[in-house]
């Protein structure tokens, strides 16, 4: 016998919202194990204590934001509609079944007005990391870093071309000092001082979102993107740092400053790091050595001129500061340029009679020049680290940690595309996405630990 349930939609029932949310629901675990009381302290100075209309409870506001990132709800309008019909969302916000859901415009107004030019989203992310540290879920000894691209909310065909200058790198002062010391030691004259080594470069600037950058990378989509430079701790794969740049910024540029930021902010005693090949630069290798950190960086493939000897076929003699070619001729030191490269040159008279000249150089004066950076020793140590047993084991952890963190963010939390435009708004999205990922890990770990013990 067929029965219809249509009439039951008009029935009145006496229920408790507490009974409608399963005991093992994600939001129950988050509410149980994450302490959100710090939010009131962080935003109290942004509210007037004695005039104006009563404001929406900041905790409810931020919990609404968290819901959007927990479940990858990209639109704030859609978030409002989802809260209206989802009992678990209402329970998490402290709303009853008949309570009015805060308007979606409240979130956007607070973002544009009250929280503009504040560090509230960075503060929230940091506080979640600190809670993870208190639960012994972050070791701070081994860190993995990488970047992922985020498609900007911009049409790649709408842009203007502008001439800009490349930013002076953070390490330039240190490099200049090292070059001057090197030249004095070798009896060379000091180079004329030059504060910057910037070069003019033509770039595409989006007319829709000027903060984004036009990204052109092998194997990557082409267009306007942002980059999320992320670091995770290897112990429980929690995100410990998030930094957003335009899509045309090289991965290595912000790395050392962000590493130092974590050491200072959280008191990390970093012993080892594992990085992709994009970070294999002499300044990073030197920076890791100066900080006494065991660095493992993937090999970067170079494409030397076909038919000529590779640089590795020339042997460097550190004690005599010279190179020896495959035919046992010595290439003597000549000078050190302002970019930090030592120049070693062969004797053109000997090279002219060498039977392997065509495999060595194609210069008209028959002179072979080999360059070596003054910090090349640091890079060679990193290469040896990568080939060591512990280095190989450490690098294999990347796919289980940082790569998985990015995959979860994109697959589960809507992190493939930028919700809003502008560097500040994209930074908010990156920080809040990483924060909710950390919240989930903390909640699941503590719940599992409570059941076991």
Automatic annotation (TrEMBL):
Matching InterPro entries: IS1182_transpos, Tnp_DDE_dom, Transposase_InsH_N
Bias kind Basic and acidic residues: ranges: 183-204
Listed transmembrane segments: none
Pfam families to which the protein is assigned, alphabetical: DDE_Tnp_1_6, DUF772
Domain Transposase InsH N-terminal: 16-112
All residue ranges annotated as the Transposase DDE domain in the record: 324-442
Disordered: annotated span: 183-212
Highest taxon of source: Bacteria
Protein name (record): IS1182 family transposase
């Amino acid at each position: 016998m067929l029965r219809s349930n249509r009439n039951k939609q008009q029935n009145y029932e006496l229920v408790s919202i507490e009974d409608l949310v399963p005991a093992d629901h994600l939001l129950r675990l988050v509410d149980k194990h994450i302490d959100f009381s710090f939010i009131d302290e962080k935003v109290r100075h942004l509210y007037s204590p004695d005039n104006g209309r009563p404001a929406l409870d900041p905790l409810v506001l931020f919990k609404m934001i968290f819901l959007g990132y927990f479940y990858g709800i990209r639109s704030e309008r859609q978030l409002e509609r989802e809260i209206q019909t989802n009992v678990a969302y209402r329970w998490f916000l402290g709303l009853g079944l008949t309570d009015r859901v805060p308007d979606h415009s409240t979130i956007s107004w607070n973002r544009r007005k009250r929280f503009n030019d504040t560090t509230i989203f960075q503060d929230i992310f940091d506080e979640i990391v600190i809670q993870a540290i208190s639960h012994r879920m972050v070791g701070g000894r081994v860190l993995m870093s990488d970047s992922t691209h985020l498609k900007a909310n911009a049409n790649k065909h709408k842009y203007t071309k502008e001439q800009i200058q490349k930013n002076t790198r953070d390490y330039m002062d240190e490099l200049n000092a090292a070059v001057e010391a090197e030249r004095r030691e070798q009896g060379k004259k000091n180079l004329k001082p030059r504060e910057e080594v910037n070069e003019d470069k033509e770039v595409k600037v989006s007319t829709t979102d000027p903060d984004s950058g036009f990204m052109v990378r092998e194997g990557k989509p082409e267009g306007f993107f942002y980059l999320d430079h992320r670091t995770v701790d290897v112990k429980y794969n929690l995100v410990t740092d998030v930094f957003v740049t335009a899509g045309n910024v090289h991965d290595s540029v912000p790395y050392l400053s962000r590493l130092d930021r974590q050491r200072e902010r959280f008191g990390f005693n970093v012993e080892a790091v594992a990085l992709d090949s994009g970070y294999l630069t002499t300044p990073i290798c030197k920076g890791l050595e100066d900080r006494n950190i065991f660095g493992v960086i993937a090999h970067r493939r170079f494409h030397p001129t076909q038919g000529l000897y590779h640089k590795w076929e020339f042997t460097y003699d550190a004690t005599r500061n010279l190179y020896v070619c495959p035919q046992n001729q010595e290439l003597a030191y000549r000078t050190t340029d302002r970019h930090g490269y030592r120049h070693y040159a062969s004797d053109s008279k000997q090279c002219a009679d060498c039977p392997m000249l065509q495999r060595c150089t194609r210069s008209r004066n028959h002179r072979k020049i080999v360059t070596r950076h003054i910090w090349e020793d640091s890079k060679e140590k990193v290469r040896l680290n990568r080939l060591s047993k512990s280095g190989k084991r450490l690098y294999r952890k990347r796919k289980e940690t940082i790569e998985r963190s990015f995959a979860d963010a994109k697959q589960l939390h809507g992190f493939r595309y930028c919700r809003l435009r502008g560097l500040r708004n994209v930074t908010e999205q990156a920080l809040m996405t990483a924060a909710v990922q950390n919240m989930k890990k903390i909640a699941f770990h503590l719940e599992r630990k409570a059941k076991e013990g």
